[in-house]
Amino acid sequence: MATPIGNLGDISHRALEVLGRVDAVAAEDTRVTRQLLAHFGIAKRLIAVHEHNEKRVAKQVLALLAEGRSLALTCDAGTPAISDPGALLVAAARRAGFPVTPVPGPNAAIAALSASGLAAPHFLFYGFLPERTAARRRALAPLAKLPFTLVFFEAPHRVVESIADLRAALGGERRVVLARELTKLFETVHDCPLAEAEAWLAADPHRRKGEFVLIVEGAAGMPEAEDAGRRALEVLLAELPLKQAVALAAKIGGGGRKELYRMALELKRREP
């Protein structure tokens, strides 16, 4: 069940109905959910379900469901299992044969995208980048050539480092939208080239506070050689074994064999 990401007025009528009807609520942080319930005059049994206990608590939840009890699943803000705990619990319930019904609502990634002004038809939601610099840079490397708008979540204490790594991996000319404190009092949505984002964050310490959604425009398109190699592969793979198709595609399109081999495997996986 989705809960507000800031403004409590965003909770849906249906969500309130469900919260009032269920026997218990499984919550990422019972303190946060208790405040939400109290605001709307709802009192329920709360069960803590977070990243450190989700597997263990799943057994407790399944036992309650087996008794005929009903349960709502919430995270601190937004939708459970989207860069938050909940997926393991949902999977366990479904495997056990219990129905799982989504109650949609607020979502920080979609809210930020809707206010970003980036009109690309496709986007890739990555979620949180790795905490350590080296791992973060490794994660960003394969995203550099993707033509999709890239959507990340980031914590305030890492946002400056992440922006620096995004600039290094994707290029300073790409536009980035920094959305922070969405639906809250100090909501900010700022649009600038990646090359200017670090300076914008440094200009005011308040700009580095709050939870962030970072939206970066996708790559302009595949390099011509890579595009030509892919087109050649699509034709050759229909007639030749994979290795032979890769060798001929390299001669036709001029691309590197390693990259063409990766493309060929990808194309093969997509075959019906």
Task: Describe the protein.
α9 packs antiparallel against α10 (242-253) and α9 packs across α11 (257-270). The protein contains eleven helices and eight strands. The mean pLDDT is 92. It is 43% helix and 15% strand. A five-stranded mixed β-sheet has the order 4-5-8-6-7. A three-stranded parallel β-sheet has the order 2-1-3, sandwiched between helices. α6 (133-140) links the parallel β4 (123-128) and β5. The protein has 272 residues and is α/β, with parallel strands linked by helices. It folds into three domains: 8-95, Tetrapyrrole methylase, N-terminal domain (Cobalt-precorrin-4 Transmethylase, domain 1, 3-Layer(aba) Sandwich); 108-216, Methyltransferase, Cobalt-precorrin-4 Transmethylase, Domain 2, CATH 3.30.950.10; 224-270.
